[in-house]
Amino acid sequence: MVARRKVAVVGAALSDCGRVDDATPYALHAQAARRALADAGLDRSLVDGFASAGLGTLAPVEVAEYLGLRPTWVDSTSVGGSTWEVMAAHAADAIAAGHARAVLLVYGSTARADVRAGRRTGTLSFGTRGPVQFEVPYGHTLIAKYAMAARRHMIEYGTTTEQLAEVAVQARANAALNPEAMYRTPITVDEVQSGPMIADPFTKLHCCVRSDGGAAVLLVAQEYVRDCRRSPVWVLGHGESVSHAAMSEWPDFTVSPAAVSGRLAFERAGVRPSEIDFAELYDAFTYMTLVTLEDLGFCGKGEGGAFVEKGRLRVEGGELPVNTDGGGLSAQHPGMRGLFLLVEAVRQLRGQCGERQVRRGDGSLPRLAVASGTGGWFCSSGTVVLGAG
């Protein structure tokens, strides 16, 4: 029996992101993968594990073939935006158990370019089969489901649209420090509130951007860390959870599955939320950030509105910097954004983020981070706690 090994992220990279009109999704996968391997300083021959979702009829077989890989461990778990945190958890377990030595997680999408070129339309619905068939006739588009949940929180706890707007304002403030962010011009609460209504209570700036882009992360067993170019970022703990598919089966619209995945991740890492230096949270809509902060334990249930309105999420002067690259609300959001959370968390822990670099109170680099992805309409959650090497 192989002893369980420590697992580290040693490679993290993005492909070209934002407005990319001249690349295929496969090309963005390949670009991100090459950059992650170069970041790690390891040859692709070491990679014996591969995880991918969202592209091809036989994902991840087709993408692995495109990249010239022949893995002996694969994962194609697809649970929406939380896919990549869940995959990272699976990969870490596989490496720790000796089933793989190096696992590459890759994603790429031309969601924006495809709409622009007429190859697809905006994703308003996930179809009419299965449990959702009972909701579609009533106008339950994807955004409507999130809007319903946000409205429930407002009714239960007095959360205001101005407080939700603060999430977008602070995400944009962080994006202003990120030269790779798609939108960097500062915005105000009034500007968020006065935008066109998309689904009450969400105006346009309460919603994520649509971009192109890809990301990749390489995880390895501890014995390979010494061969890498970068300092390792250790996987300390992780958790995953699913909640519902039909909104009628969701017990409480104000509680996301991050309440379970977060608890598991922190327990397994042996750390408390109060010890975390910054957080990368899935933010397709402003309410997602607010409720995930509550469910991960950074504030009490119903206290998210008061927590975010005090500027706590900003890189500059914030008590808990959140979505330090600008998040899906301002930086990039090509579809399933969970892998971008891991890339940004790794870069921050390594001290590679320049003007947007998070610092602790004494000026030192951060030591602990959490990345928490959300899938579907709060249907699934994956949470990973990471520590600097």
3D structure, described in words:
This protein is of the alpha/beta class. 32% of the residues lie in helices and 17% in strands. It has twelve helices and eleven strands. It has helices at 25-40, 61-67, 83-96, 111-116, 142-157, 161-175, 189-193, 258-269, 286-295, 304-308, 327-330, 338-350, and strands at 7-14, 49-51, 73-75, 102-109, 197-199, 202-203, 213-221, 233-242, 278-281, 368-375, 380-388. Strands 3-2-4-7-1-8-11-10-9 form a nine-stranded mixed β-sheet. A two-stranded antiparallel sheet has the order 5-6. β10 (368-375) and β11 form a beta hairpin. α6 (161-175) crosses α9 (286-295). The longest helix is centred in the first third of the chain and has 16 residues, at 25-40. The radius of gyration is 19 Å and the shape is globular. The two termini are 27 Å apart. The mean pLDDT is 95.
Q: Determine the mean pLDDT.
A: 95
- Indicate the low-confidence ranges by residue numbers: none
Tell me about the largest β-sheet: 9 strands, mixed
Q: Tell me the β content.
A: 15-25%
Strand order of the largest sheet: 3-2-4-7-1-8-11-10-9
Number of helices: 12
State the total count of DSSP E strands.
11
The level of helicity is 25-40%
Overall shape:
globular
Helix and strand succession?
EHEHEHEHHHHEEEEHEHHHHEE
The Cα radius of gyration reads 19 Å
End-to-end span in angstroms?
27 Å
Structural class computed from helices and strand pairing? alpha/beta
Tags for this entry?
two-stranded antiparallel sheet; alpha/beta; nine-stranded mixed sheet; 32% helix; 389 residues
